[in-house]
Amino acid sequence: MASVNKVILIGNCGRDPEVRYLPSGSAVANVSIATTSKRKDKTSGESIEETQWHRVTFFDRLAEIVGEYVKKGRPIYVEGRLVYRKYTDKDGIEKSATDIVATEMQLLGGREGMGGPSGGGDDEGGGQQRRPAPAARPAPAPAASRPASKPSTGFDDMDDDIPF
Question: What b/e sequence results for 88-112 when a residue is b if at least 16 CB atoms lie within 10 Å of its CB, and e otherwise?
């Protein structure tokens, strides 16, 4: 039987990434991501907000990208897998930790604060920059403008030069 170990997070970075390099030259970046959920208390009816913190580790090129573009407070989308580990702290006490090893990452919330290849700088207004809306597809021609001699099959506008 197949198994799946997949995590998807959308949250805010709690601190700037820590990037370091292994002796092999591979980059490793660590970041904390906060996710917040809201619910209503059954007895009082008031809204309760709960925040969970997640440790996320990025490797190789993804770690370098995270180190360059991710900043504290920035919204981020992460996909990865759970990793459980045990370690002994400096006082000799055995502890366990749950980490997420990221395989995918997407920056969210516009381009503020990014000085990357596009040359975008800080967004002066503090808001998100909007992307242009995708062009609308042209509406199909009305039935009256089609020739009435043959019914439309939906293949009328296809080229006859298909190579197979």
Answer: eeeeeeeeeeebbebeebebeebbb
Query: Residue 158 carries which side chain, given as an amino acid letter?
Result: M
The answer to whether the beta carbons of residues 48 and 39 sit under 8 Å apart is yes
Query: Is there a domain that residue 13 lies in?
Result: yes
Residues 29, 63: contact at Cβ < 8 Å?
yes
Number of domains into which the chain is organized:
1
pLDDT tens digits, 29-72: 999 999 999 888 888 888 888 999 999 999 999 999 999 899 99
Whether residue 135 lies inside any domain: the answer is no
82 close to 54: Cβ distance less than 8 angstroms? no
CATH number of the domain that residue 11 is part of: 2.40.50.140
Distances (CA, A) of 74 to 89, 101, 138, 143, 160: 31, 19, 38, 51, 50
Residue 141 lies in a domain: no
- Tell me, yes or no, whether 125 lies in a domain: no
